[in-house]
Amino acid sequence: MRPGEFKPIEIARRTGVTIRALRLYEQHGLLKPRRDAKGWRIYDVEVIARLHQILSLKRLGLALAQIGELLGRRGIDLAATLEVQEAALRAQQGQLDSALAAIRGARSRLAAGDALAIDLLIDLTRQAAQPNPEHWGEAFAPLMRQHLRPEQIEDLAARDAFTADAANGRLWEGLVAEARALIGSDPSAPAALDLARRWRTAQARFTGGDPALTAGLRAVWRQAVSDPALAPNVPIDAEIFDFVLAAGLMLKAREEP
Description:
Elements: H1 8-15, H2 19-27, E1 34-35, E2 41-42, H3 45-58, H4 64-74, H5 78-111, H6 118-129, H7 133-147, H8 150-158, H9 166-182, H10 190-207, H11 211-226, H12 238-255
Antiparallel strand pairs: 1-2
Helix pairs in contact: 2-8, 3-5, 5-6, 7-11, 9-10, 9-12, 10-12
């Protein structure tokens, strides 16, 4: 093997991308490693650059099909992908800087003996109330192992289902806020059915529409929102879960012939 060429296991070790994820991207036509004389996959600089593009676009919340369409139609180059990655990181940095500035300002006021303004206090409370994605992973890990098969968990990891990104976070924040506002209304009303439809579409980004995986994840969420020890680290509560589930069942009934 020549310098600058790697086998899949070496790429997985160096990048942290699992071999299963590499296979998934290849199955979707996103990666096309060449083969050596023995038929072994070879990852060279062009394939690795393509892998970087895929991962950068996934962090924006794009599904694999959307990434394939975008790369195939427009031929995004590495420089453009790096620009996208830098913009996403700057957005995250801006959010962290804003939160730190608010905390430092509050500490300075308290140190000077001043009371906190109500708006600042509300802002700090909102930030503190945001569930920590790292805690979700810690809380969900045993539930995943309980309700999902190992290969299903690997598939979710390959789809970056456990990775928080700004675009996906905004999507789910909006859906959860809509669901909370609709609680107590008729789950068969047009607004509820529309929410259920978009909720299902968002889920499909990670499940690929697999019914078994969707059912397993539903069991994970049901246990999480029902467990007093886990519920504080979950971004939805039992009321939201039940309402969305009811609306989803109504939507399915309407769609069936």
